[in-house]
Amino acid sequence: QVRLQESGGGLVQPGGSLRLSCVASGTIFSINTKAWYRQAPGKERELVAHISSGGSTSYADSVKGRFTISRDGVKTVYLQMKTLKPEDTAVYYCKWDANGMAYWGKGTLVTVSS
User: Fold this and answer.
1) What residues have CB less than 8 Å from 33, skipping those under 6 apart?
2) Helix, coil or strand: residue 64
């Protein structure tokens, strides 16, 4: 029904920036919330940023002030990442709550290294 496709990951130097995109395809028939998660090697998957159906945002303490989640229409969500640190290295996943279900993307790898 709904498929999510992340893009924008890659290699970036510490202090750099990167913008991740998540585009949904399929039919969206309900108001949805969107979030970005990440999972670093050897660590549990964690919530990074969330945007509600009303546009309210929240962030993990580790990224607050550096990351920004935003929407473009009903099918696209971005994660603007600035002042990236090596500890931000992880696979980033887009998650949408829509149509009464949770949908996950396959993830995009972000590597922060000099």
Assistant:
1) 50, 51, 52, 53, 96, 97
2) coil
Which residue, among 43, 75, 73, 48, has the nearest Cα to 59 in the 3D structure?
48
Q: Say which residues have a Cβ less than 8 Å from residue 43's Cβ, sequence separation at least 6.
A: 90
Yes or no: say if 48 and 92 are a contact pair by the CB < 8 Å rule. Answer: yes
Q: Going residue by residue through the chain (114 aa), what tens digit of pLDDT does each one get?
A: 789 999 999 999 999 999 999 999 988 777 689 999 999 989 999 999 999 988 999 999 999 999 999 999 888 999 999 999 999 999 999 999 988 889 999 999 999 999
State how far the Cα of 12 lies from the Cα of 53, in Å rounded to an integer. 31
